[in-house]
Structure formats: C-alpha cells, structure tokens
Amino acid sequence: MTRHDWSGVRERLSRLAKKRGARRVFGADGHRWVLEAPLSAEELADLEGQLRVELPEEYRSFLLRVGRGGAGPSYGLFPVRHVDGRWHWEGDGADRTSLDMLDQPFPHVEAFNPANPPDKADFDSVEEFETARQEYWEWYETTLDDYRHSIGLLYLCHLGCAHQEVLVVTGPARGQMWAESLTSDEGFWPLRDDEGEPIGFARWYLRWLEETEAKVLRRTR
C-alpha cells in the first residue's frame, strides 16, 4: 500500500467492527468503527476556500476517498461538517483549531513548550520559588487559551485528558502529525516512526489501523 492508497480502508474497518474484541479497543465506544461519507470535490473546494489554504495532500485525499471523519486513532477523527453556511470540525477539542489562522505558518520543526514551569534550582530560596510558581500558574491559565501557539495546526483527534494530535497545515513542517499536551506541561512535538522520522497523516492513520487489526486478531484467536 502506497502513501495515498486508501483502497480497502472502509472494508477493513467493517471487518474489525464484527470481531469480538473490537469493543475493547481504546476509543471504539466513541467512533464505533463508523466513517462518515467522504467530501465531494465541490465541498472540499468550498472548505479550502473558506480556510484560504489547501490542506496537505494525504489528508485531503482521505477526505475525498475515505471519509470526512469518524473511526480512527484514539476516540476517532474529528469530522468536518458544514453548518449554517460555514465549515468546521466537531469533537472534544476540535474547537482548539483556529480556523481564521490555519493559513498562517506554524513556525516550528522541533518540539517546543510555550509554558515551561519554574525550576527550584533557579532560585535562591523557597519563598522566591513559591512566588514564581504562583505567578507562573496565573500566566499559564492565559497561555492555555492563547491560539497564537497553534496557528497553522488542525486538531484532528483527542486521546483523553486533554492530549491532542494535530496536523500541520502550513509552515516548514506542513503535512506532519504532531502531538499537543499543554495541560501536562509537555507542549508540542512531532510524531515519529520507528526510525525517528516525522510521520504524515497517511502513515499515522494506517499505522493505527494496522496495529489495531493485530491487537484484535490476537484477542480473537
């Protein structure tokens, strides 16, 4: 299977759904192994026109040939929907995508954390550290809601506990899948394969499907 060969994905999901162990797969209660209908070429053009940007090829081919959302890693892919004349993604955490800033370049290529907590080693006394920590948490609450850290990022799914996985739409890492976990002070970082290379949407999705098939088959033997 090549990077953009989505043939058989729906059939594979349908087979998984019928397996006895499928209900125990993490997140399956959320997506129930169902993919929503693909977008038409006209719908995709309208979506990209609203965003003022062309989506990365692997994801846009998925939208056209496989589905607009549903069954996928963790609790599933946030579906893109057209409501009241506007396109948006729906799901727990999907609103962290700033649709007005998707066309602005995400500037990073390496992991970064915009909210680094203070370290005791940097202070001469416990009192100074406690003061800095209090100031940090007051600032941190604001930082979590600052969309400037995630410009050019499309939030595609959540893993629970506010951990998210996102697609870089614009910038030097365009097409890569990244993780975001600001609430646990980990920040943003690129997802990588076994060789340490950043992965795109197709490898991310198909790796999940392959690993899930292997787990379910082991349970049903």
Automatic annotation (TrEMBL):
Residues 38-207 form the Knr4/Smi1-like domain. SMART domains: SMI1_KNR4 (SM00860). This is Knr4/Smi1-like domain-containing protein. It comes from Streptosporangium saharense.
